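Posting for a labmate who doesn't have an account.
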Amino acid sequence: MSNEGSPNRLEFAVEPIPYFVQALVTGLSMLIYVPAAEQLTKLLHYATGKMRFADGTTVSFTGTPALLQPHLLQVTIVIWAQIILNAIIDDPLVQLVVGVAMSLGLAFVSYQVLRVVAPLLVTNHGSRLEFSASVEDYLKWQLIFTGCSAVPALLGLLLPASGFFATIGSITLAVMTLALLGIATVFYMQWFGSKFTGGMRLVRFDANPV
């Protein structure tokens, strides 16, 4: 975040386990769709309740399940499309291509949800936030994340099916994937925070990639 003591420093003081459980329940609810809007609303209320600027300004989510419900149907459809296609396709290379396409589709519908959610985040001073990134920029980042997973997966297709070298190669590729995703996540969060505008405050994410 921004420099220590700055009134624009946004603190997110959340207990990891309760937050993870709530996020997991929300993610699983997307598979069923019907409870998804209510669970996402609960998650956003919980998360924003743990956000506070250094000067005491708080953030709250003012949306309702009814506002979110229509936009989440697309998310559920894309998730199930990906699950079904992975189940009926046997070729690893085709699975990888379909996975990339589905990831971009999920990113697109998630972007639409984000554009709905952002203006519903309001500070106690009445400032509403806006997410100003274009869908093209958002999809570019999804391509970067997909590449961080897809490139090691493509290299994995060259490994032998079993044996010592297959094991060592799999471990190496797994570490490579985690490293690439970790570095990409830091730069993504910096970009993501810079795209929130509204009121007098800007959110920054400062972290060493390593």
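Reply:
Got it, the structure tokens are right above this. Residues 10-197 form one domain.
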